[in-house]
Structure formats: C-alpha cells, structure tokens
C-alpha cells in the first residue's frame, strides 16, 4: 500500500475547482453523513452520485454485514457493492487475527453477521465463557443485553483478550442519538477493569485498508463526527471534509484539538461540488475575527466576530471564527494547554450567524 502523505491534511486544495476535482476517491462515513437510521441525509445521495468518484463506505457500526449495508445503500439510490463497504466488525476481525490461530475459540458480543465474519476467518465462535475463548470481540447489536455482556465479563476475567469494533458512545438514528457500542463497552470495562483495544475509527486502519482496496492515491474522508471520522482521517494523513449533519456541531469544531480538525467544513454534502478554496477555514462573507488574550489563570479566550452583510451565511461566519481560533492554538510543544474558546458577536450579521449555530 502506498503510504498516505501526512502533510496533506494541513495543505488544503488551493484552486477554485470543485472539491471532488481535487481527489480520486471518497471515504464516506454512514451514520450522520449519508443516512440517519437508513433515512438518507438531505442532499447526500444526490451529491455522491454527482461526484462520480470511486467510494468506500467506512462505518463504525458493526451491527450489519457488508452485503446488508450495501443493499440498504442501493435502496436509497446509491450504486454500492459489498466490496465498497468497510465495517468496524471487519477491521476487528483483522485485529483479532494477530492474537489467534485457526480454530481458536472466540466469544462475540454482536450481530449474527459479526459472528459470520469471525467464522469465515477460520475461528470457532462460542456461546459461553465456559468454552474458554481466547478473544472477546464486542460490536454493536440492538439485542446486546445483560446475559451477553455477563458472559463477556466472565471470559475477560478468566483471561480472554478484549477487543472492540469501536468505542462510539452514541449512535445517530432516525429518532435521535441512541446508545452506541462504546456505552455498552463501558459497562464491561466497569465490571472487569479492562479497556479494550478498538479496531474502528478513530484509528487509521479502516481508512488505510479502504484506500488500498480502491487503489486510491488521494482520497477525501467525509464525516460528521470529529472524534471518530475526522480524527481517523487525520491519523491516516488524509484530507477531511466535516459536514454539519450529524454529531459534531460548530461549538465542537471551535474547541477541537489539532488531531480532530478537518481540512474543510460544510453544512452538508452539496459541498462536494463547491469550490475547494471556499471550504477551508478562512475569513469570508465579509466577516472578520480576532482573539482576545486569555485572562490570567485561565485558558479561555474570546473570538470577536464582526462584519458580515445581508448575504453572509452562518457557515461563512463559522469558517472565519475557526481560522482565527485555530491560529491561536498553543499546543505546539510549549507545554501550554489548548485554549478554550467562546465567541462574542459585535455586528448584526455576526449575532444572527452565531445564534443560528446549533
């Protein structure tokens, strides 16, 4: 596999061509980016189809197998094969292989499709801690409950290695944010004292495997969650587009650590056809932003947002604020903590924009 260029994340495209013209593939998150509970996010399907780039759907949701996910994506109008889906369950099986020999017993907390992946990799899926599993694999499934988790606890306390597909605390659904795999993992960790090694985002492995599978030299990662999608893309040295259609909103962006800062920010997936140069954090829309010094004894700083006009938009205000705030980051080896930012709006357009941030 060609190693991704780690400098790309800090050097966004400079031309005024469309964003997709700068890349040769899309690595797309699902929940909160393409759909919410299998209901398509507005504009997402149309934007992906119009982009006409090879795509891999990289999801931390381990409750369904690649073919089932691909079928659901075809159902909302996307041309997707199972080979274009990379789930955290698949990554978890890859991770487990380094600890197992063919035929070794594995206890799986998760969906039937997860168990099928484990069996297909040549391991023996067991249903009880009494079978002395060498590895416990933990992935999301709506039917995970006390009995399943209790067996996992017993196996881990008996010496089994604990691996998780992902550690997302929440999961976007059509009804709102629901319990994620990380919250269930927390219960097992609380009972065992063992924190699992996680295979999914924010680790870079899923993105690197996806890039290799597509034969891509310059992929763009697209996601809605800073601590998984964006952090994983940054860790893999890839450019990232953060869309405000899911978990992480403007205030999370403002205070994001360097490891979670996207290359581009947009309201939704229509940004794929917008100018790459306009999507990066920078002063725009007639807005200006400056940062007041921190008060003595505190890391909190205020970004003063002014200017704007009748045609200015909230996303332009956000990119302007982010450019000023992120330029003030002090996590540069000086030993100072990363600042905490608030925003003070000093013009009617600025106030209107900030009030619209959710």
TrEMBL record:
Top-rank taxon, per record: Bacteria
According to the UniProt record, where is the region Disordered? Answer: 329-358
Q: Which InterPro entries match?
A: HAD-like_sf (IPR036412), HAD-SF_hydro_IIA (IPR006357), HAD_sf (IPR023214)
Q: Which Pfam families match?
A: Hydrolase_6, Hydrolase_like
Q: Which UniProt keywords apply?
A: Hydrolase
According to its record, what are the GO cellular component terms? cytoplasm
Instruction: Give the molecular function GO annotations.
Output: phosphatase activity
PANTHER family for this protein: 4-NITROPHENYLPHOSPHATASE-RELATED, D-GLYCEROL 3-PHOSPHATE PHOSPHATASE
Alphabetical list of NCBIfam families matching this protein: HAD-SF-IIA
Under which name does UniProt file this protein? HAD superfamily hydrolase (TIGR01450 family)
């Amino acid at each position: 596999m060609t190693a991704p260029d780690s400098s790309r994340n800090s050097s966004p495209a400079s031309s005024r061509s469309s964003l997709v013209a700068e890349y040769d593939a899309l690595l797309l998150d699902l929940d909160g980016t393409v759909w919410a509970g299998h209901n398509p996010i507005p504009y997402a399907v149309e934007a992906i189809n119009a982009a006409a780039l090879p795509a891999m759907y990289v999801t931390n949701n381990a409750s369904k197998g690649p073919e089932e996910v691909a079928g659901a994506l075809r159902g909302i109008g996307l041309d997707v094969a199972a080979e274009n889906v990379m789930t955290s369950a698949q990554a978890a099986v890859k991770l487990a292989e380094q600890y197992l020999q063919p035929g070794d017993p594995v206890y799986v907390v998760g969906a039937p499709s997860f168990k099928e992946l484990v069996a297909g990799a040549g391991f023996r899926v067991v249903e009880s801690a009494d079978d002395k599993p060498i590895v416990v694999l933990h992935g999301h499934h709506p039917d995970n409950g006390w009995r399943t988790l209790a067996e996992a606890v017993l196996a881990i306390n008996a010496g089994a290695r604990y691996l998780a597909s992902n550690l997302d605390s929440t999961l976007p659904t059509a009804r709102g944010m629901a319990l994620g795999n990380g919250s269930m993992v927390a219960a097992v960790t609380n009972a065992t004292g063992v924190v699992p090694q996680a295979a999914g985002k924010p680790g870079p492995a899923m993105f690197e495997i996806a890039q290799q599978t597509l034969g891509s030299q310059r992929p763009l990662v697209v996601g809605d969650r800073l601590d998984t999608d964006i952090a994983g893309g940054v860790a893999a040295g890839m450019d990232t587009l953060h869309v405000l259609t899911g978990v992480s909103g403007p205030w999370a962006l403002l205070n994001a650590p360097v490891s979670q800062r996207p290359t581009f920010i947009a309201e939704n997936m229509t940004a794929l056809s917008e100018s790459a140069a306009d999507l990066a954090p920078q002063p725009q829309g007639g807005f200006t932003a400056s940062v007041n010094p921190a008060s003595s004894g505190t890391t909190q700083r205020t970004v003063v947002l002014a200017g704007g006009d009748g045609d200015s938009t909230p996303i332009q205000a956000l990119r302007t604020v982010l450019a000023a705030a992120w330029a003030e980051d002090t996590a540069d080896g000086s030993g100072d903590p990363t600042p905490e930012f608030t925003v003070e709006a000093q013009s009617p357009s600025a106030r209107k924009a900030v009030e619209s941030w959710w």
